[in-house]
Amino acid sequence: MSGGVPNRSSRVRRLVRGPRPESVPALVGRACALVGLVDVAAGVFPRFRHSRMHTLAEVLPGSFGPFAAALSLSAGILLLLLAHGLKRSKRRAWRAAVVLLPAGAAAQFVYRHSVVGALISIALLVPLLVHRDQFAALPDPRSRWRALANFVLMGAGSLGLGLVIVSVHPNRLIGDPSLADRLTHVLYGLFGFEGPVDYAGNTSWTVAFSLGALGWLTAVTTIYLALRPEHPAARLTEEDESRLRALLDRHGRRDSLGHFALRRDKAVVFSPSGKAAVTYRVVSGVMLASGDPIGDVEAWPGAIERFMDEARAHSWTPAVMGCSETGGEVWTRETGLDALELGDEAVVDVADFSLAGRAMRNVRQMVKRIERAGYETRVRRVRDLGEAELERIRRAAEDWRGTDTERGFSMALGRVGDPADGDCLIATAHKADEVPGPYGDLKAILHFVPWGPDGVSLDLMRRDRAADPGMNELLIVAALQAAPRFAITRVSLNFAMFRSALARGEKIGAGPVLRAWRGLLVFLSRWFQIESLYKFNAKFQPRWEPRFVVYRASGDLPRIGFAAMQAEGFVDLALPLPRFLRRRTKPARVCAHRPAERDVQAA
Description:
Layout: H1 24-44, H2 46-49, H3 54-58, H4 68-87, H5 91-112, H6 115-130, H7 145-167, H8 179-190, H9 203-227, H10 238-251, E1 267-270, E2 276-283, E3 286-290, E4 294-295, H11 300-314, E5 317-323, H12 325-335, E6 338-349, H13 361-372, E7 376-381, H14 387-399, E8 425-430, E9 442-450, E10 455-463, H15 471-482, E11 490-497, H16 499-505, H17 512-528, H18 530-538, E12 543-551, H19 557-568, H20 597-602
Parallel strand pairs: 3-5, 10-11
Antiparallel strand pairs: 1-2, 2-3, 2-4, 5-12, 6-11, 6-12, 7-8, 8-9, 9-10
Helix pairs in contact: 1-4, 4-5, 4-9, 5-6, 7-8, 7-9, 11-12, 13-15, 16-17
């Protein structure tokens, strides 16, 4: 890109394109999934095996020899497990399929002398070999949690499928076994032992081998995931952080979310010149960046190109959450991606802020009421606080968190009181009680990160649940009134998703579609505080800056949305330790721009 900052239109428009053609990896993955499903059905349902589809099922890879049911079931599950990796062009999935399909073809010929079965395996193998260069994606970041997740999911699936296997031979059953007997038979069978259910003829062997195959697959895949070399998620190194801080010193004023790039659970790619960078985290196969690239706008395309190269190398889905209008224009122009408005960021200009006037009446009355109740506020830089007080603030923020799962990614720093973050601003509310609490007179905390030399961006909002409602309003007003003392001219508050839809939908003349969309957002606000955050922000009469999501295709949006909810902490697929077992001395990870529910609702 040349010519400095690109021209800005009134809104980033969604690009209109035709449907993208289906890729070879996607087609091969779908074919393997289909073959896997038919194999599973052929191994489980006896009527299916004696139907007209039996001829096709018998020549599929894995369904050969005297152990047809068990082998068909095993091959089907393995092909289903490989299908997703093949769709994403994963090299290891390709290698496994290339080994599996010739083995299936050889088994068809040796055990069944089936030329047709061998040809079907080779037919699936041919596109894998011809298009092998399209299966070059590197492995995803992973951890040992995958082994536990596999054990739980495969175990549950094996139990359910095992009950089906035990129950689909009603004409062969001896007696009338109860559900408990059948479940016991499944549990025994998964471990290779004979259970209490018996069948006439050779059906007992078929059921036993099928259950044993399920148990074997569960054990082998879990052991593999547990013992394979760990490829942990990338972390921000000290050198990366130092380079990012240097870029923020020169260009941090451009984006209010810039300082959040310093989260240490993100990775980073730099432009070839080193003058720009994009930070990201990989979540469920989505390469999720947040905010605008860091650094010189003229170097943004180089960093974006490196980002896209990394996404292609791993077959990750690229996405950007919360970029500005300028950032959205550069991303869409340089990559061909699309952009949609996600919501608006509330920005208050300190010079224009005042508690006077009718519009600020509710905030003014609330602040006066709390001050009369004996609360006082303090606004300071992190570097001006002692270590003992910082530790007390960290522990209070951890203890006052409203959920067991930490929330925040795109607008959260993930730490409080780090020595490297001395320019961060902390606003605290205090009130002396007759019986001091565990944190003394501390009642509420607001944490702001730098936004260039003359701005701050709201990061964390925590309060003692026993304190009076309105702590957040009190501290925001205190921070805005103290801002001139720190040469701060602008303050970024919360991000309001779908703010324009909520605002337009409640006006006279709004159409039925817009009203229906607003109604859905209000309904979802019961869990995600969409409407309450918008109304909370609007109290301070901010100007609204649009923020956008950048994505590759409309079909990717559900996946990107789910990955974003995971990153922000709304969906947690891991198994956290119970709260009483966590280390209390660990610095609190920060909640993303989310006021305490009691304060928002009371306001």
